[in-house]
Amino acid sequence: MFAVIRVRGQPDVNVDVRRTMELMNLSRVNHCVLVPENDVTKGMLQKAKDYITWGEIDPSTLEKMILVRGRLSGDVSITDEYLKNNTEFATAAEMADAIINSGYKMKDTEGAKAVFRLHPPEKGYEGIKRSYRSGGALGYRGGAINELIARML
């Protein structure tokens, strides 16, 4: 499972790139979505690589992100109590494991929003015009996405 974060927001984005980000629900800067790791999404990530960063998310980071930044309709926070009463999961940790391992989606939870609205990272991005390999913030970053998300919670 990949966590994808939109880093750049620019009004004159290429039409194909804009459409790709719309399909991934990345409408604003610092929004994060979870996408499965398959050939289709890898192609989409490559098309939008100059505006986003992504990597493999681990269950503990996802659990924290669900509890801190997960929202229901009406901008209500997701809590363990809500999950216990309205889903088959007792805690956010169980939900995070199901999302990563068995293909469960955030939108399968009634009323849950699929987009996590994160804060800008503490100490800022490394540079929004260069790739992660070149010392910037864009493109694939592997497990380092967990460190970025921790700075954004």
Please describe what this structure looks like:
The chain is α+β, with helices and mostly antiparallel strands. The protein is 36% helix and 15% strand. It has 6 helices and 7 strands. Strands 6-2-1-3-7 form a 5-stranded mixed sheet. A two-stranded antiparallel sheet has the order 4-5.
Task: Identify the notable features of this structure and list them briefly.
single chain; 153 residues; 7 strands; 15% strand
- Number of strand elements: 7
**Unreliable stretches, pLDDT < 50, 5 or more residues?**
none
Q: Helix and strand succession? A: EHEHEHEEHHEEH
Distance between the termini: 19 Å
What is the percentage of strand-forming residues?
A: 15-25%
| Biggest sheet overview | 5 strands, mixed
Helix content: 25-40%
Structural class: alpha+beta
Radius of gyration: 15 Å
What is the topology, as strand order, of the major beta sheet?
A: 6-2-1-3-7
Kindly state the mean pLDDT as a whole number? Answer: 91
Shape: globular
Number of helices: 6
Summarize the structure.
This protein has helices at about 15-25, 40-45, 60-70, 80-85, 90-100, 145-150; strands at about 1-5, 30-35, 50-55, 70, 75, 115, 140. With about 150 residues, it is α+β, with helices and mostly antiparallel strands.
